[in-house]
Design brief:
- With 630 residues, this protein is an all-alpha fold.
- It folds into 5 domains: 169 residues, no CATH class; 120 residues; 93 residues, no CATH class; 93 residues, no CATH class; 78 residues, no CATH class.
- Helix content is 73%, strand content 1%.
- The chain has a two-stranded parallel ribbon with strand order 1-2.
Length: 630
């Protein structure tokens, strides 16, 4: 059958002005007439003659002409074709037998008059073609004209070829429109609801896909160029991601109907999936290697908008978008709290000045130096935080460091006391309760230390005991009250030997200090929430890896395994009691479930091991704080 596009004016019947009733001798006379008229060149005339005389070639011509129409109807069709009266031709064809109707509608598609209604009518006509009736009509004509009869199988094969030719012609007509993808998508969605398995629809979509290939290649090449430029260190990612998003819109405008059709057939459109795969590789590079979460998020959202028909892809992209939204928000939050982290780190290096200023002015704007810097950074961070508790945790972490590592509960108490003055801004009831508990413990630790330091100074000891009584209960309170009585008696009764009173008091104090001395527990060291390491960043993100073996971990997960391994090595010799050993064993079990066997990208492990060596003292301090909290 003709490998081009369907057109009634190329039919042998039209060239020779023949009919289904033309015999061999009639055809010979018609050839002479055609040569004399000179409307067609000799090659076309002789080819038309052979097409009508050879039995199988004649079958193609018979099917692609106007079977079951009268000579007057055929003449009327061509009068309307010549006059360009498309509306009237389409209207009159509505009453034709289905195959003749399909041929007229296909001719209209070729003539560039494609509409949604015309395409649906053409597809419906093919659904109604009655092969048995066509076989009967054509064999009756052939019997009258002396041509051999047709077998049903031959008829079915040629009808299939003709239906494919009509579908291709319809696709060409669609492609000639200003917005072919938009029209194509409407038609495909309607036909999928009406007859999703039709040969016409499948071939219609496939040939449209072939016609769109050059345009899709151009879009794909432009996307490749943007990908390469985005990998450059000085790339303007905002501009490039915007350009890629625009190119994905162009791609979708063209390819969306094919994606919809393939999805309905249970497949994923191959060219679109390859575009997705290239862009997701870029996305992973931007997020994992460069910390460009905003750009990666925008790109993932553009991919999800473009390829929802790729079901496996859509699920991955939904997870990507959710994770990137979280990482992007964490990165933005980290930018708000980075000054607070830096101020707290600076205070550790200027602890003497920090202590004196905090004791003199408290956690207020009257303070200066590191205390003032922390307060300013703390108040600036609060309105920008999704979770304001993060700012509280950072300052709390400094207080616990001062208490646990520098053995200075007084300064730690004053810092927590100042932090609690902003407790009304804290929504976390759990953290608020924890801060109040630690406030009590720190004051008790401070006053116990003060009591021991003032042994022998009855007046100072009484002040310390009175302060301790405010935060004690049960047996501890009874012991403190007994000590207070003895101290009062010592001040009022000169007959009692001073040495006996002091010895008794100190003995009790020693017992009290070592039996009730407490430190805030459950310390939660702050870990900055973003893996995007800026040049001045002092804290690297550790992310808890999932439980499993042989998993490929990202940099923040590898960092957890390396850093936690060093902490556990430090903790091991520090565990003495059964409780400490049990806690340590639980940490080991958890660590082994996540970090005993994992994969990593080339170079990731060695760079993180260098980080661990540089932070060795901090990791040892972390380990000691963990043990102190047990």
């Amino acid at each position: 059958m003709n490998n081009g596009y369907f057109n009634l004016t190329t039919s042998a019947f039209h060239i020779l002005k023949a009919s289904y009733g033309s015999s061999r001798s009639d055809i010979a006379d018609l050839v002479d007439d055609a040569e004399f008229d000179g409307f067609f060149d000799l090659a076309k005339i002789h080819h038309a003659q052979q097409s009508l005389l050879a039995p199988m070639a004649r079958l193609e011509q018979e099917l692609s002409w106007l079977p079951e129409l009268s000579e007057a109807q055929v003449s009327g069709v061509f009068d309307q074709v010549k006059s360009g009266n498309i509306i009237e031709l389409k209207k009159s064809s509505e009453h034709f037998p289905e195959l003749a109707k399909a041929n007229v509608l296909a001719h209209l598609c070729c003539a560039g008059n494609v509409t949604d209604d015309l395409l649906h009518s053409l597809a419906e006509a093919w659904d109604e073609v009655d092969q048995t009736n066509i076989l009967k009509v054509l064999n009756e004509d052939r019997e009258r004209t002396g041509f051999p009869g047709i077998e049903l199988q031959h008829l079915q094969d040629r009808l299939k070829d003709l239906e494919i030719l009509h579908a291709r012609t319809a696709a060409v007509g669609i492609w000639s429109l200003d917005r072919p993808g938009e029209a194509m998508e409407r038609i495909v969605e309607t036909e999928l609801r009406r007859h999703p398995t039709s040969l016409f629809l499948g071939e219609f979509v496939r040939y449209y896909d072939n016609l769109s290939e050059p345009d899709l290649v151009r879009v794909s090449d432009e996307i490749d160029t943007c990908i390469e430029r985005a990998r450059e260190s000085d790339a303007d990612l905002g501009v490039l991601v915007g350009a890629i998003s625009d190119l994905l819109i162009k791609w979708d405008d063209i390819n969306q109907p094919v994606q919809v059709y393939e999805q309905h057939q249970g497949h994923e459109e191959g060219k679109s999936k390859r575009i997705y795969e290239k862009l997701r590789v870029l996305n992973l590079e931007l997020a994992k290697n460069r910390g460009e979460f905003t750009a990666a998020l925008l790109l993932s959202e553009a991919l999800l908008r473009t390829f929802p028909e790729l079901e496996s892809v859509a699920e991955v992209l939904k997870r990507d978008v959710a994770q990137l939204e979280e990482l992007d928000e964490q990165q933005k939050q980290h930018q708000h709290i980075e000054p607070l982290i830096a101020a707290c780190e600076a205070a550790k290096n200027e602890l003497a000045g920090f202590k004196s200023d905090l004791a003199r002015s408290g956690f207020s704007h009257a303070s200066k130096g590191p205390v003032y810097d922390i307060l300013v950074a703390f108040k600036a961070a609060l309105p920008e935080m999704v979770d304001e508790s993060l700012a509280f945790v950072i300052v709390r972490d400094l207080a616990l460091y001062i208490n646990n590592d520098r053995n200075d509960p007084e300064t730690a108490f004053r810092l927590i006391d100042g932090l609690l003055s902003y407790g009304g801004l804290l929504r976390s009831k759990e953290l608020s309760q924890k801060l109040r508990e630690e406030h009590t413990v720190l004051q008790r630790n401070w006053k116990q230390k003060e009591l021991a330091a003032n042994a022998g100074n009855t007046k100072a000891m009484l002040v310390a005991v009175n302060d301790l009584l405010n935060f004690s209960e049960g047996p501890e309170r009874r012991s403190l009250r007994a000590l207070k009585i003895k101290l009062v008696m010592k001040r009022t009764n000169e007959l009692i030997k001073l040495g006996v009173l002091i010895a008794a008091g100190l003995g009790f104090v020693g017992f009290l200090i070592f039996s009730t001395m407490d430190k805030p527990n459950a310390r939660t060291p702050y870990q900055p929430p973003t893996p995007a390491a800026a040049p001045t960043q002092t804290v690297a993100l550790e992310t808890l890896p999932p439980v499993g073996r042989g998993l490929t971990l990202n940099r923040s997960q590898i960092r957890y395994c390396v850093f936690q391994g060093q902490r556990l090595d430090t903790i091991r010799p520090l565990t003495n009691t059964n409780n400490q050993i049990d806690r340590f064993n639980r940490l080991i079990d958890d660590f082994n479930s996540r970090c005993s066997d994992y994969r990593y990208r080339s170079g990731a492990l060695s760079s993180i091991q260098r980080e661990a060596r540089e932070k060795a003292s901090e990791l040892r301090a972390d380990a000691r704080r963990i043990v102190a909290s047990w």
